[in-house]
Amino acid sequence: MTVNHNISVILNNRITWIILIVIGIIIRIALLPVKTGDYIGFLNPWINFIKSHGYASSLKYNFYDYTPSYIYILIGIAKSGFNPLYSVKIVSILFEYVAAFFIGKIAYQRYHSNLIVLISLAVVPLVPTVILNSSYLSQCDSIYAGIIMGSIYFAVKNRQLLSIVFLGIAFAFKLQTVFILPFYFVLMLREKLRWQYFLLIPFIFIVSILPTWHYGRNFEDLLKVYISQTDHYKLLTLNFPNLYIWISNNYYESVKTAGILFTVFITLLSGYLLSRIKKEFSFEIWVKLAFLSAIIVPFILPGMHERYMYLGDLLGVLYFMVTKKNIHLPIGIIIVSFYSYIRCSRYNDVLPMEPAFFVYLFIIFLTTKDFISSLKIESNEITYK
After folding, report:
1. Burial class of residue 324, CB neighbours in 10 A (0-12, 13-18, 19+)
2. What's the pLDDT at 4?
3. Of residues 377, 311, 379, 355, the one with CA closest to residue 175
4. What's the pLDDT at 382?
5. What whole-number distance in Å separates Cα of residue 140 and Cα of residue 339?
6. Separation of alpha carbons 202 and 171, rounded Å
7. Burial class of residue 167 (count of CB atoms within 10 Å of its CB; 0-12, 13-18, 19+)
8. Tens-digit pLDDT profile for residues 348-363
9. FRET pair for 206, CA 20 to 30 Å: which of 89, 345, 359, 378?
10. Statement: residue 288 has pLDDT above 60
């Protein structure tokens, strides 16, 4: 009893979490000078191209394979004159804390204590894949993921329009936003979101490409930017342990199409089945559904890369913060995600994909089982009305 009491005192002590926040910041400062292939081979040449081609005027050239939304940020970095490596990382790090803040605000709906926000700001930035993504690899997945967390928060608060606006902004940065779409599809079918609001997503995307079109890029090419991205590598999976590790890339075109159709089918079917349930979904059920959406879609969708579990990692943290059980599920997902990062290195040839696949599949099974069990049990949790 004394040990449990002492642990409880530590966990409820704000100083503990502030110390962890400081540790997270120190780790990021220490990693700022690190240059990896993503920065050397892509981001730094893009920034140099922007500088040598008139900053905003460079938008007319097709020198990048991201959406224009992120290039606008790089233009700002180029014009600032500040260390470009540090700037790229700092922008992504800021959005890590945006994601952590919104995760805490979502969990606040259960605890109604600001301590949970502090805990989130301490824990989320210490997730290994979160550290690797921005501070080590100079990647920007935190941007779209942080905005999605804001979107989920506003959905929980029943601020429908703002929720979809955030979702549209996230989509303007990364196609991986589709990982969470099944969650929103169920929200719509259960009349928690008006279907008309979803028209804002393509509208926001079009608005995001207008400055680039203004400077001379072909409008049709800009509309097809995500199609171009998906066809860039022509691999069914790239260091990501999903269904497609078992299928040869010789069948890329046909399997890719089948995989996309299968994902759409699963989304429609699950949405229909969940819309038929008469019981009001508890707050906890919605959180579980978001986590499930973010881990199942990358598992059944072709063309996934090693970083594409990022959203699932974050929602796994939220899942545990809200449910306070099954910690093995988010830890397992983070391990699978971390393993994928490691494979995207010199260890690619010595680390097999199969073990991570079976761990991943088992986690999906357990998470789905937990979600279905929640649907069958009358809950006293906060309901989302």
Report:
1. exposed
2. 52
3. 311
4. 42
5. 19
6. 9
7. buried
8. 777 888 999 999 999 9
9. 89
10. yes
0.70 exceeded by the pTM?
A: yes
26-63: pLDDT as tens digits: 999 999 999 998 999 999 999 999 999 999 999 999 99
Let me know: does 258 contact 174? Beta carbons within 8 Å. Answer: no
Residue 313 pLDDT more than 60? yes
> Alpha carbon 251 to chain centroid distance?
28
Q: What is the mean predicted confidence (pLDDT) over 138-158? A: 96
Whether residue 371 contacts residue 290, with contact meaning beta carbons closer than 8 Å, is answered with: no
Which amino acid makes up residue 191?
Answer: E
Report the alpha-carbon distance of residue 208 to residue 239 in Å, rounded. Answer: 31
**Residue 138 — left, alpha, or beta (φ > 0 → left; ψ -120 to 50 → alpha)?**
left
Instruction: Kindly tell me if the per-residue pLDDT of 301 is higher than 70.
Output: yes
* Length of the chain in terms of residues written: 385
Q: Provide the token pair at 361.
A: 């599949």
Q: Which residues contact 143 (CB under 8 A, 6 or more apart)?
A: 70, 91, 92, 95, 173, 174
Q: How far apart are CA 247 and CA 249, in angstroms?
A: 7
| 294: nearest Cα among 326, 318, 277 | 318
- Rounded alpha-carbon distances, angstroms, from residue 367 to 55, 276, 298, 354: 47, 21, 15, 20
For residues 191, 193, 198, 201, the Cα torsion angle rounded to the nearest 10 degrees is -160
Q: Can you state the percent helix, strand and coil of the chain, rounding each to 5?
A: 75, 0, 25
Return the residue matching tokens 């761990």: 359
Q: Answer for the pair 30, 93: CB distance below 8 angstroms, yes or no.
A: no
CB 84 within 8 A of CB 77: yes
Residues near 240 by beta carbon (within 8 Å), at least 6 away in sequence? 298, 304, 305, 306, 308, 309, 340
Mean pLDDT of the chain: 91
Instruction: From 160, 89, 79, 189, select the one nearest 130 (Cα to Cα).
Output: 89
